[in-house]
Amino acid sequence: MPIADKDLLTLLKQDMDKARSYQAELSAEREKHYRHYRAEPYGNERPGWSQTVHPTIFSVVEWMKPGLVEVFTGDFFAFNPVLSGKDPAENKEAQHRADRLKRYVRHKLFNQLGGEQLVEDFIHDCLVNHYGVMKVTQRDDFDLTTELLPDMSTEEIEALAASDKTIVDVRGGKTFTRQDPLTGAPVTGLRGAKAVRKKPTYQGFHLEVVPPRELYMLPGYPELGKNPFVAHVVKRDLDSIRRQEMAGVYRKGSHAAVSARLDERRAGDDTASEFDTLHSVDGLSTPEMLGSGRGDGTDSPARRGQGEVWVWECYTRLALDETKLLKPCIITVCEDVILRGPIENPYGGPPFELGFVYKEPHKPVGRPIAAVLDHRQRVLSNLLRNIQDSAAMSTYRGFLTTDARARKILSTMGPGDVSLVPSLGTVQELVPAPGDPLLLNAFQLTLQEVAKESGVNENMQGLDNNALNQTAAGMQMRLTAGMQRQKLYARRIARSFRKILARILDIIRLYPPEDDVRIVGADVAVEHEDVMGEYSVSIDVGVGPQERMESAKLMDEMIHFIHTRNLCNHDNNLDHKNSVQPGILTMPVQFGPQGMEISSGFHKSLQPVRNV
C-alpha cells in the first residue's frame, strides 16, 4: 500500500530538520574559511597602521591547483577489461572495446560537458572547503517548443499525439464542428491549437559540481553512501516546475500546488550568510538584495511573481512494497508539496561523490586548507604589519611639538617640502630605532613552517631568491620532497575520480547510448558489446616535473648509448633468436604509474658494453 503524502512528509521532515541544522554549522565554517582564503581583514586593524593580510591560504591553494588540474585533465584514466579467457585474439578485442569506451567517455566528458572546468571547480572545492561534491546522474535534457497545428478533429489530434512521442501536450485553439464528407456525421475538432513538443538537447551521463551549500545530509555517517538521508537542495522558479510537470517528470498539479504556497514559503536561512559572503568580498550585493530594491532582503511583488522556491531532491530509504524492506528511493519535495515520487532509486544510493585533500579516518568531512593554515596566516599577517610599520616609521619618522601652528604645518608636510615653523625650539624630531632583523627572520621561519604543513615550497613555485647560493642537488631534494606531498593529494582526489568513473560505467550500462552511438567527425564509436563488458577503472596520477626530467634524461642516455656504440650499423652481430628487426634495438621497458621504468640490469649494462 503506497504511503500517503501527509505521512511521507512527516517522515521526511524529521530528517530534513536535522540536515538543515548540520548544514547551518558547516555553512558557518565555510564562510569563515572563505574569508580567510580571500585574505579578508580580521577586524583588529588600527587606523593609521598597516592593515595588510598576508594571503597565505590563497597562495597555497592557487599553487596546488596547477599540478592537480593538469593531472586530472590529461590522459589520467583507463578502463581495463576483466579477461576471462586465455585466447589472445579475444583478449585483444576486449582491450579494443575498452579503448573505444574510454574515447567515448572522454568525448562526452571534455567536449560536451566541459570537463576541464568541472575538474578545476571540483579541485577548488576540495582545497577550500571541507569537501568537493560531484553529482553523477543520467540526464535527458530537453527544451519545450510549440508548433501551430492545422484544423484537426479530436480523433486526429489524439492519433497524432499517440504516434508522435515528442508531443507532450496540445493546448489552445477554438472548438469547431464540421460534417464528415463520407458519413455526414458531425465531427468536433480544434482550430488554431498548438502542439507542445519535447526537443532533446542532451542525453547521457551527466556530471555536475554541486556547491557544498546545496548538499544536505545527516551528521555522523563517515560514508555518504551509507547515509540514510541525503538531499540536493536547489532554488528553482515556477516556470521550471511547470516545464517538468508538462514533460511528465513531476506530478500533475504540482505547479498549481506550489503557486498556492508562495506566500507561506520558507526562507533559505541555512546558508544565507555564506551566500552573502560570496558576493560581499567582491563588493557586490546578492541578487536577492538587488531584486528587492530596498536592501532588506525581502521579496518585492515582482520577485514574488517570479516565484523562486527551494526544491529538495531527497535520497532516502523506504519500504515501498509488501516485503517491508527498506529500499533506496527518490522523493522531490517543494514547500510541503510532493512533486515526484517516491520512486525507486536507479543509482542504488545518493549519486554524489565527495573529494578530500585532508581527510582523517572515520570522519564524514575533510579539513580545509584554510583550517590548517589559519594560525600561520594570522602570524604572517602580524609580522608583515610590524615590518611595514617599522619601515614606514624609519622612512617618515615623526615630530613632537607644543605649538598648534607647528603641528598643523608639520602634519601636511610632504617629502622635499620646506615648512616655516614659529620656533625650532618647539619642534623635536622622533628618530625611531632601526628595524629589528628578528622580524624578518621570524617571517622567513614562518614561511618555512607553511611549506612543511602544505608541501608547497619556494622551489616548486620558482620563487626562491636564494637559489643562486644553493646546490642543484639540494634544490632537487626540496623539489622532490614537495612533490611527494602533491602526489599524496593527487592520490586522495584520484580515489574520488575512480568512483566517479565507475558510476559513469554503471550509468552507461543502465542507460545504453542511443542517439550518439556513432559520433560523426570524431574518432569515437561505441558498440553494444563495449557497453556490456566488465571493466575495472585505473587512475594514473601522472608524474611531476622532476620525474619528467629524469625520464627525459634517461631517454637522452639511451639515444646517446645507441649513437656512440653504433649498434644500428651492426645488425648482423645481434642474436637473431630474439627476432630483432634490422636497425631496431629492443629494450625491456615497462610503463607504470610513476612513468617509464627500465628493467633492472640496463644501467649495469651501460658500463661493460664494448664496441663490437
Structure explained in plain terms:
With 612 residues, the chain is α+β, with helices and mostly antiparallel strands. It is 43% helix and 21% strand. The protein is built from 18 helices and 20 strands. A hairpin with a 2-residue loop joins strand 19 and strand 20. Helix 1 packs parallel to helix 8 and helix 2 crosses helix 11. The radius of gyration is 34 Å and the shape is extended.
Distance between the termini: 88 Å
Q: Tally the beta strands.
A: 20
Backbone structural class: alpha+beta
- Strand residue percentage: 15-25%
Cα-atom Rg, whole angstroms?
A: 34 Å
Mean pLDDT: 80
- The order of strands across the largest sheet is 8-9-10-11-12
Secondary structure tally, helices:
18
Quaternary organization: single chain
The main pleated sheet reads as:
5 strands, antiparallel
Q: Uncertain segments of ≥5 residues (pLDDT<50)?
A: 300-305, 574-612
- Helix coverage percent of residues? 40-55%
Shape, per Cα inertia axes: extended
Features:
612 residues; 43% helix; single chain; extended; four-stranded antiparallel beta sheet
Write the layout of secondary structure elements.
Elements: H1 5-37, H2 56-73, E1 77-81, H3 88-112, H4 115-128, E2 132-148, E3 152-153, H5 154-163, E4 167-171, E5 174-179, E6 186-191, E7 194-210, E8 215-217, E9 230-237, H6 238-246, H7 254-259, H8 272-280, H9 287-292, H10 301-306, E10 308-319, E11 326-334, E12 337-344, E13 352-355, H11 369-396, E14 398-401, H12 404-411, E15 427-430, H13 437-454, H14 458-461, H15 472-510, E16 518-519, E17 524-525, H16 528-532, E18 535-539, H17 545-565, E19 589-592, E20 595-598, H18 602-606
Antiparallel strand pairs: 1-18, 2-7, 2-13, 3-6, 4-7, 5-6, 8-9, 9-10, 10-11, 11-12, 14-15, 16-17, 19-20
